[in-house]
Amino acid sequence: MGVNKSKSAFRSIAEVTEDLGIAPHVLRFWETKFSQLKPMKTKSSRRYYRPDDVELLALIKELLYDRRYTIEGVQKLFKNRSLKDILGTEIQKDFFEEDEEKAEIEAVVAENQTAIEEAIKDLTKIRNDLQMMSSAI
Description:
Layout: E1 11-12, H1 13-20, H2 24-33, E2 40-41, E3 47-49, H3 51-66, H4 71-78, H5 83-87, H6 89-96, H7 98-136
Antiparallel strand pairs: 1-3, 2-3
């Protein structure tokens, strides 16, 4: 973005879509699906997003695009929750169970690392055996 704004500054739809990498029509569509999104509108209907709106949009994008939730799934997560609850750190931990996911990923990586190391040892032994056989011929 060309202009450096304060984190507390309102953002235009162009700024938000550029920052999040989504099209303006997607942002307007999400406003119809998520009642928590309430950008300020001028008399000429220009939208201005508060910092909380931008943070919520980033969360919606992550849930839909990265975590592959459906719109209905995200709506269920947000149902009967205030914006403060949705964006709060405790709520996010409940939603995503980040600590459990991280532990699972680390276990899989460790398991795969051991298998890779064993395969390298086996392949090294096979290479050495083949070299010995070829030199004997």
